[in-house]
Amino acid sequence: MDQLSLTFAALADPTRRAILARLARGEATVNELAEPFDLRLPTISKHLKVLQRAGLVAQTRKAQWRPCRLEAAPLKEVATWVWNYREHWEASFDRLDEFLQSIHHEEHEEKPK
After folding, report:
1. Would 60 be classed as within a structural domain?
2. 15 and 60 in contact (C-beta within 8 Å)?
3. Which end of the chain is more exposed for a tag (fewer CB within 10 A), N or C?
4. What's the whole-number mean pLDDT along residues 48-65?
5. Signal peptide: which range, if any (predicted)?
């Protein structure tokens, strides 16, 4: 599977997105990452493995402490991929704006004075 597909698959789950949001604030242990969820540690560990396979999370060892940290490089690739579609959605918004303005103009022309 290519990197972009791995990243999107990892981001598809709301728990994993919440874990990444927490790690964006700084390193955290598995226990700290598990705190806001009603999930067992093995389940959180499985989510972390998916994030690690996608390259979004790295875990290091500091004595007995094994903090996790965010690795943002795959997110940059996603942002670049999405950015390539910017012209398309901007054109769609422009067409929508033109349509709404035409409706507004027609409504004002039809009203008796």
Report:
1. yes
2. no
3. C
4. 91
5. none
